[in-house]
Amino acid sequence: MKAINFFKKYKQFSVFLVLALLIILAAVFAPIVSGGVDPLKGSLADAMLPPCKEHIFGTDKMGRDIYARVIYGARASLTSTFGVVALIFLVGSTLGIIAGYFGGWIDAVIMRIADMMLAFPGLVLALAVAGIMGASIKNAIIAIVLVSWTKYARLARSLVLKIRNRDYVSAAIVTGSKTPYMLVRYMLPNALPTLVITAATDIGAMMLELAALSFLGFGAKPPTPEWGYMLNEGRACMQTAPWLMIFPGLAIFVVVVVFNMLGDSLRDILDPKTE
Known about the structure:
The protein is mainly alpha-helical.
């Protein structure tokens, strides 16, 4: 009953949670959702077919089914996006909590590195890193993590600084509490809700950044079905075969909107300022 009352109270969150789960399930069960069509197998005889009964999203220049590639593309896009968000959350939050708790030269070093990273436009720096490392999904993830952890580090540091000098923290230190216990018992729980909200609202933005890197040739490599790379493939045929860009673009748009709205709804629930 508590779960039912919760979902009734937060209807917007419930709707977008269901939509997000449907998107994830579609990616997990891609072979079933795509009707068993191989996204990598094509026939030149069926190349560049417009949407029809046999190919509801049409085919590409290799005769591959666009619908199957869009469905399978959800696997690559969602997996890489969740991986990016998880790594940024872990790296940034850990460094920020350490900087805020210990202070001194540790805080100075971490924050100066963060300031240095913030001095460059994020996507431009990610392009430079990905270009040096080579085009692949793995390198695109590493590039985005290297330039995006700073926001979480600064946020975690500010949250820790708010409670670092509280009386109950000082009392715990005086009574002999060890540093790992202090970090896990006091620092992390106070910073975690805000950091989780930030991570949830960043899913859509990270997906767009990964798609941008793939679109520019620094992410997924052929023949991997990935939405950003599919947009790149369809760019040359935008006027003669617009379906090559329309359906991957719609997939990115829908998924980004769903996860952005889910993140906003989660913020309304977890934000302590919300009545």
